């Protein structure tokens, strides 16, 4: 049993190191904020540090605001982009009203072929805080069961609806963000991916068939459960 746990840990560590390669990419994500009283403009920028043209990238900018009563609200923007050599481009803007006693966590991801290239994050507090902003890790989110969707088609939306309903009723709400993304493919189908902690844990090609989509949901939930088990083991060994 101990040997099996060691193998799982080594495999998880390998996947972690492999997916950490995004830090070497030349395209960088950057969040810039402008605060006027309680209104905050949140801008997501991409910077090309290379002398070559960059194409086929996607971005996801989202905010998660915690209200005074402990309720949460979110805003999401996503899309595709390209960059001229050594150019910087503003990709998205969110306008958030952050009152006294509230806080807003912001995350900005840039991906290429579903692989994380760069990310940035921060927290914006209400006016009473002396520290207006600070960098925040995705693991600092205090709620469970957060699912972010970026689907493009009806089939992708069907998958998300089936997935979210079954996930919310499963009693297994994980302490990490589940990102569901979709990319168009040749023909009528598309590719749906589930990304957690910058890793793709499940993906499939859609079909206009409810039974097939529900089977994909079941397989996705199984993969997420297995990933969560390995993730707990990895974090436990890191603390030793």
Q: Which descriptors apply to this entry?
A:
disordered N terminus, four-stranded mixed β-sheet, alpha+beta, Double Stranded RNA Binding Domain, 3 helices, 240 residues, 2 domains, Immunoglobulin-like, 43% strand, five-stranded antiparallel β-sheet
How would you describe the overall organization of this protein?
Helices cover 27% and strands 43% of the residues. It has 240 residues and is α+β, with helices and mostly antiparallel strands. Strands 4-3-6-7-8 form a five-stranded antiparallel beta sheet, with no helix packed on it. It has a four-stranded mixed beta sheet with strand order 9-10-11-12. Strand 7 (115-125) and strand 8 (133-134) form a beta hairpin. Helix 1 (2-19) crosses helix 3 and helix 2 packs across helix 3. The radius of gyration is 19 Å and the shape is globular.
- Please trace the helix and strand order, writing H or E for each element: HEEEEEEEEEHEEEH
List unreliable stretches of 5+ residues.
2-23
Largest beta sheet: strand ordering: 4-3-6-7-8
Cα radius of gyration in angstroms:
19 Å
Percent of sequence in beta strands: 35-45%
Number of helices: 3
Which overall shape is indicated by the principal axes computed on the Cα atoms?
Answer: globular
Given the helix and strand composition, which structural class is it?
Answer: alpha+beta
The main pleated sheet reads as: 5 strands, antiparallel
How many β-strand stretches? Answer: 12
Quaternary status of these chains?
Answer: single chain
Using the coordinates shown, work out and report the CATH topology of the largest domain: Immunoglobulin-like
- Give the CA-CA distance, first to last residue: 18 Å
CATH class of the largest domain: Mainly Beta
């Amino acid at each position: 049993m101990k040997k099996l746990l060691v193998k799982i840990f080594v495999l998880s560590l390998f996947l972690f190191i492999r997916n950490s390669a995004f830090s070497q990419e030349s395209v960088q994500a950057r969040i810039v904020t402008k605060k006027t009283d309680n209104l905050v403009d949140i801008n997501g920028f991409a910077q090309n540090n290379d002398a070559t043209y960059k194409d086929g990238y996607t971005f996801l900018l989202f905010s998660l605001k915690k209200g005074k009563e402990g309720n949460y609200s979110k805003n999401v923007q996503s899309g595709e982009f390209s960059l001229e050599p050594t150019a910087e481009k503003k990709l998205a803007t969110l306008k958030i009203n952050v009152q006294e006693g509230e806080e807003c966590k912001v995350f900005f991801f840039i991906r290429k072929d579903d692989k994380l290239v760069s990310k940035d994050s921060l927290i914006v507090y209400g006016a009473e805080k002396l520290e207006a902003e600070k960098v925040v890790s995705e693991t600092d989110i205090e709620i469970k069961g957060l699912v972010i969707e970026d689907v493009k088609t009806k089939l992708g939306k069907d998958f998300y609806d089936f997935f979210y309903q079954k996930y919310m009723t499963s009693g297994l709400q994980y302490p990490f963000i589940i990102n569901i993304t979709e990319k168009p493919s040749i023909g009528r189908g598309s590719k749906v991916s589930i990304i957690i902690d910058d890793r793709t844990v499940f993906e499939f090609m859609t079909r206009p068939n409810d039974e097939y989509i529900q089977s994909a949901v079941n397989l996705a939930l199984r993969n997420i459960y297995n990933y969560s088990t390995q993730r707990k083991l990895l974090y436990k060994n890191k603390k030793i």
